[in-house]
């Protein structure tokens, strides 16, 4: 799972998810169409945190740290905490069904690095930020 270290996750390799776990999450996470990303996202789910980089337009960026305590099943609640190391006074705590967290991780993992970007940290998908900041429900929720 070399991609996991790309996002600042724990350097120790996480175990591959159980095939039963993949089958359990697949209906919620486009698993048939995006099986590779689902497997990697479930492995990352076990890590419990990622470091990422929110890119701003037209310029700038905000590094972030997302930590979670995930539920075991797709509909169980995950308890999450989002922090910004450069702005410690900013932070969000929230709860979401675990399948939503897995979908966000899948989208993060699926992002290509686009030149001239040299920072390997990914960003959470726009659906995450729109939900967090504007209250928009994620599609498929």
Structure explained in plain terms:
With 141 residues, this protein is α+β, with helices and mostly antiparallel strands. Helices cover 33% and strands 21% of the residues. It contains five helices and four strands; from the N terminus they run αααββββαα. A hairpin with a 7-residue loop joins β3 and β4. α3 packs across α4.
Radius of gyration: 14 Å
> Major beta sheet, specifics?
4 strands, antiparallel
In total, the number of strands is 4
Helices and strands: which structural class? alpha+beta
* Beta strand %: 15-25%
Envelope shape: globular
Run of helices and strands: HHHEEEEHH
Low-confidence stretches: 1-13
Question: Overall pLDDT, averaged?
Answer: 81
Q: Oligomeric state of the chains?
A: single chain
Q: Could you tell me how far the N terminus lies from the C terminus, measured between alpha carbons in angstroms?
A: 28 Å
Query: Number of helix segments?
Result: 5
Q: In what order do the strands lie side by side in the largest sheet? A: 1-2-3-4
| Helix residue percentage | 25-40%
Q: What would a concise description of this structure say?
A:
The protein has 141 residues and is α+β, with helices and mostly antiparallel strands.
Q: Secondary-structure map with pairings?
A:
Elements: H1 2-6, H2 19-25, H3 35-47, E1 49-55, E2 61-69, E3 77-83, E4 91-97, H4 98-110, H5 126-134
Antiparallel strand pairs: 1-2, 2-3, 3-4
